[in-house]
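Sequence decides. Our protein:
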Amino acid sequence: MELSIVTTLYRSEPFVAEFYQRMLAAAKKCSDDIEFIFVDDGSPDGSGALVKAITAQDPRVTLVELSRNFGHHCAIMAGLSHARGDYVFLIDVDLEEQPEWIAEFWEELKGSDADMIFGVEERRKGSFFKRYSGALFYKLFNLLSETKIPENLCTVRLMKRRFVRALLDINDSNLFLAGIVSWAGFVHKALPRSKNVRPMASSYKLTRMLSLFLNAITSFSSYPLKAIFFLGMSLAIISGGFGTALIVERLLSPESMSVGWPSVMVSIWFLGGVIIAFVGVIGIYLSKIFVETKNRPLYIVREIYSQNKNQLS
C-alpha cells in the first residue's frame, strides 16, 4: 500500500459524500495504490452509516467505529494505527481543509528529505474571539512549554511511514497531538494554507479549548510547578521581611504600631487563595500520573467495516 487517507467523523454527515468524491479524485492523481480510513468517533448523526454504504461499494474504504466519543486526537491515533500506506495523508473531513491540497503536499514530500509536510494557516479566520483566543493559545503554550509547536497549525499533513510509527510508539494517555508531533522530532516542513470557514458551529467551545490548553501545558511543561515554588519562596521572603519590619517598628516605636482586623483578614484570604491554587495545580499533575499508571487504551474499537478485514493491521 502506497498511500493512506485518514480522517475522523463527528457530526460530519453533511460532508462525507463530497469529501469522499473530491478526496478520491485528488488522491488518484498521486497514486493508484490508495486506501481510505474513516474513524467514527462516536458520532451521534448518520456519518458512520454513510461511510458503511461506501465500504460496500469501494474495497479501498475502511470504517473504524469506536465504542464511544474519545476525542479528536484519540480518533486520529486510531486512524493512524489502521493505516497501512508508506505515506499517510491526515485531513479533517469538514472541507475546511481542501482534499486537493494533497497534490502539493505529495510533490513537496517527494522532492525533499522531510518526514512530514504539514499545513499552517496564513491568517486565522472566524470570529474575533476564535482568532485571538487561538493566537493566545499558541503563544502561551510556547512560552510555558519546553516543547515548541508552530503557530496556527492545521490538521492536514502528509507523513512518511517511519514518522507514523514513531507517533504510534508514544503511549501518552493525556494526548495532545501537536505536542507529541513536535516532541518526536524528525524533519518537518510547513506549507502555508488558507482554510475555508465552515458555516456550522465548531465543536471546540470555550470550555473545551480551556481544557485542551490545560492538558497541553501540564503534559509538556513542568513550568507551573516551578512557578509555584518560586512564588512560594517570594511570598516567604516578602512576609519574612514584613514581619521583621513589624518587630523592629514595635521595638523602636511601640505606640505607633496598629494592626486592624481588615489587614489580618486580607492576609488570610490572600494566603488561603494562593495555597488552594497551589494544591490545585499539584492535584492536576497527580491526576495525570494516576491516569498514566492505569495504562488504559486511548480508544476502543467497536467494529471495523471493510471488504478486506483480514488485511488490516
Notes: The chain has a mean pLDDT of 80. DSSP finds ten helices and eight strands in the chain.
